[in-house]
Amino acid sequence: MLSTRYLAQPDITDAAREALINAERLRLGGYFAEAFQVAASLTRPGAWECPRGTQNFRRAASLLPTLAWLNDTFCPAVGDNPRRTPRELAAWAGGMARHNLDALVIAGRQQLQPAGTDWTQEGLDALNGEVCDGRVAPAVSEFLSELEWVLKARVRRALGLRPPEWLPVVARGVTPFHIGGGIRTAPAADGFHHRNLMEVLFRCIEHTGGGAYLPARCVLLTVILELHEGSHEGAADVLARWSPWLVAQSASDFLLQHWQPYVDMLRSRALASMLGLDDVVVANYMTTFRSRQESAPGTVSPAQDPPATARPRLSLVVG
Predict the structure, then answer these.
(1) Does residue 319 belong to any structural domain of this protein?
(2) Is the pTM of this model over 0.70?
(3) What whole-number distance in Å separates Cα of residue 284 and Cα of residue 22?
(4) Quick one: angle between helices 213-228 and 86-105, nearest 10?
(5) Could you tell me if residue 312 is inside a domain?
(6) Looking at the chain, which terminus has fewer C-beta neighbours within 10 angstroms, N or C?
């Protein structure tokens, strides 16, 4: 659903933070025009204007190029972002899609053995993700690590991707850095469809949480495989089961946001029901959003960031 708890607050900080969460939900639900309207309102004069330099202003400005591209419209010049035409945005989005797909499937680390070497049906059935003494069981960590390898290899084959083996100087700032070449998978892994493997993953994250690096990457890789097979329903089901983390973490799907098959799925509003969105709900929200009155003089927060704990972030801890 779309929250309006803070919408009428004179202080723009909480109201804008809530609006940004709603903009993300609108994008995920396929309501691209409304998402653009909400984000753009936070960057221009009016009742929703955020002070420049605040986290809310920067976040809204960062959303505009993608939302403008999704709507095939001009992106206004905001902050450090120049004004861009639909053609310029299309070229930019295409580059982002290629870069982010490569980022999803780079090896990134060395393999000690082919992924899935020790997988058996009995062994995978026994995994449940229970946490002992505050730590994930070693068998679960090993499974998640190998699952990422297996899914990366499958996405590489499915899309014909050949990611760079060396991170360029410009990205490191020092010297080229080897990020891996081929990925080795064991014959045992080939016997498990990605849907069966995701059943194991979701069983595990019931206890460990799904917002950490490896579960998040595995979900996105599986969404790619489902969409490559032409299954919007399958991709939407995976995301729906991951929804507590999809909607809680800002831009958790960032690496897929510019990939056209994923955009097409969002545009079909395959996730709208899961998010509690439909045409009536969205229309009512936009009417309420536009009803916000100007704050009284002196009530706007100073240009400072909210506390670091205000928004959950994607964990980068590798399991």
Answers:
(1) no
(2) yes
(3) 13
(4) 120
(5) no
(6) N
